[in-house]
Amino acid sequence: MEKLIITAALCGAGTTKAQTPYVPITPDEIAEDVVRVAKAGAAIAHIHVRDDAGKNTMSTERFVTVVEKVEAALEKEQLDVVLNLTTSGSAFSDEMRLAHLPVLKPEMCSFDPGSMNWANSYVFLNSPKFLETLGTLTQTLAVKPEIEIFDGGMIQNVNYYVRKGDLKPPLHYQFVLGVSGGMPGNVESLAYLLPKLQPNSTWSITGIGKSHLPMLLAGLAEGCNGLRVGLEDNIFLEKGVLATNAQLVTRAVKIAKLAGREIATAEEARQILGLRRRPNKTKDCIYET
Q1: Which CATH number characterizes residue 163's domain?
Q2: What is the spatial distance between Cα 241 and Cα 36, in angstroms, rounded to a whole number?
Q3: d(Cα 89, Cα 68) in Å, to the nearest integer?
Q4: pTM (predicted TM-score)
Q5: Is 289 within a domain?
Q6: Range of 40's domain?
Q7: How many CA atoms lie within 13 A of 113 on its CB side?
């Protein structure tokens, strides 16, 4: 069976130090955590960035700072990780959400194919115009879109953007199940989604909060290509016990090996997903502040 890709979703947009002291917020903390998860077995690091106050930001300057520090930390330790940069950020303009991509040209970025009432508290907005622009931009830049599926209708939106040419197969899906307002984190949701994937696609899975471990197990049972773990999705190792990102990666690796799956390196993940290795170092990037 093909090797399994482990993605570490380090901090997300909302996990706070008040919830867990282990969530990396500053550029230095994020860089240090990328090194830890790489040593634990993660092939991909999914990265959001925060401002000096710890709040979510889509600032290109902040992305450049973080990626620069991550690259330097990985180079120092002679480690290799695929960087997957978020484009999620409903509070920001479409232009700001996309601006870091042509500057950094990451190997992967998120593509959230629809809007939803996130946790029944605010609109997680991804307009058709934004998605068309993002899809075209990823093709121009040779960035692999990670298609994050939170709700059932999003799977049909993917088919629409494939027909239009905004998304180009083969696709990589990331199921994010268990968000209130989206599909629940259970096997019924997975059974609904899997038959609807585009041909020759790869897929990964994560569950939010209490569905984190059940979705990990369900993904392995169904032969997933990848598992996503991390403090963006779940802050506990077990009930009442706070986790680190490295601990969540280590647990996923152990469980995967018990299920007979070997763990992919970053280079093997590139081969499985058809990624273009990022050629330029951040120090050569030019951007406007």
Answers
A1: 3.20.20.70
A2: 19
A3: 21
A4: 0.95
A5: no
A6: 5-284
A7: 26
